[in-house]
Amino acid sequence: MIRFQQNARPRTDTPSHLFAIGQTVRMKSRSGLAQKTAELFQIKSRLPVKDGSPQYRIRSEQETYERVTTEDNLEVADAPAVTDSPAV
């Protein structure tokens, strides 16, 4: 039988979400390789922590489906993507 503590304190060791719903992010490159696209995603919802990393449901305007990923795979997309062509 499972017993619950009546005056249990909330856990403080659970990581909090870094990104807000509606925020624009991009996927981090893996293994130092360049991303195939500089695709931007919007945070649609926050999901529970998995393996110590908060999860998010994200969506790109170029796709008809949503993805689920952990926070350690995302980065802020405030700055425009870097291109190889110099500015004129």
Ends apart, CA distance between termini? 71 Å
Helix content: under 10%
Provide a count of the helices: 0
The largest sheet has its strands arranged as 4-3-2-1-5
| Major sheet description | 5 strands, antiparallel
Number of strands: 5
What does this structure look like?
The chain has 88 residues and is mostly beta strands. It is built from no helices and 5 strands. The protein has a 5-stranded antiparallel β-sheet, with no helix packed on it. The N and C termini lie far apart (71 Å).
Structure described in brief:
The protein is mainly β.
What key attributes describe this structure?
88 residues, 34% strand, mainly beta
Secondary structure elements and their pairing?
Elements: E1 24-27, E2 40-50, E3 53-59, E4 66-70, E5 74-76
Antiparallel strand pairs: 1-2, 1-5, 2-3, 3-4
